[in-house]
Amino acid sequence: MSEIEHSTASDDTTAPGNGPGRLKKTIVMVGMMGAGKTAVGRALATRLGAPFLDSDHEIETAANMTIPEIFARDGEAFFRKKESQVIARLLVDARGVLSTGGGAFLSEANRAMISQKGVSVWLNAGLDVLWNRVRHRDHRPLLKTEDPYATLKALYDARVPFYAEADLMVRSDAQTSVEGVVDRVLAALATRPDVLEPTE
Ligand SMILES: Nc1ncnc2c1ncn2[C@@H]1O[C@H](COP(=O)(O)OP(=O)(O)OP(=O)(O)O)[C@@H](O)[C@H]1O
Ligand SMILES: O=C(O)C1=C[C@@H](O)[C@@H](O)[C@H](O)C1
Ligand SMILES: [Mg+2]
């Protein structure tokens, strides 16, 4: 299993304790594939000077296989089992930012452990924004269908009610850069001193 990836910020403003506040719980990014969980989560961790973890990345490292290879060889149910195990492990003692895979928040057991150990943030992007971000990539096995747009729409419609159970919701639209979305997450967290203790 790989080590926790620490953000690489070297200047004082992003060093641990000198960023926008001190993390008391893990921030867990949830939402559809292409919402920006990995990109925004990594940038947020850098801003906070906190560890960054990505469950998809951890699963791939542990298996020494890519996600498409795991789906092809062992199936989605096996992947979901590994995903739950990895999220449980990453939530232990890690006051950092954890980006999950797009399907992770559908599991009731995953939602329960995330709510117990962290704060969930739904990165909410519209269907067309998501489509524009994922359409040219081929590493998402669930979209390897005859009509990937229709598949993405079906997943979106089925999943939004689950994502809506997250503690916080932040919009991730086409007009806003990754850093702009990070600003929104930090603004949302300003209402949660139990998660991000403001610096003096
Ligand atoms: N706000 C944004 N502005 C511009 N590009 C973005 C933004 N958010 C994400 N992207 C880009 O969209 C693509 C998908 O983002 P990312 O991989 O972070 O999504 P994800 O939510 O982690 O998806 P998955 O569930 O498949 O892991 C990446 O190329 C990323 O750089
Ligand atoms: O939306 C999903 O179900 C997935 C999203 C990715 O992050 C990976 O976890 C995998 O491709 C499945
Ligand atoms: Mg990701």
From TrEMBL:
Gene that produces this protein: aroK
Subunit structure: Monomer.
Residue numbers binding ATP: G34, A35, G36, K37, T38, A39, R140
Source species, domain of life: Bacteria
The protein's name: Shikimate kinase
Keywords, sorted A to Z: Amino-acid biosynthesis, Aromatic amino acid biosynthesis, ATP-binding, Cytoplasm, Kinase, Magnesium, Metal-binding, Nucleotide-binding, Transferase
Residue positions binding substrate: D56, R80, G102, R159
Required cofactor(s): Mg(2+)
Cofactor binding remark: Binds 1 Mg(2+) ion per subunit.
Chain residues that bind Mg(2+): T38
Functional note: Catalyzes the specific phosphorylation of the 3-hydroxyl group of shikimic acid using ATP as a cosubstrate.
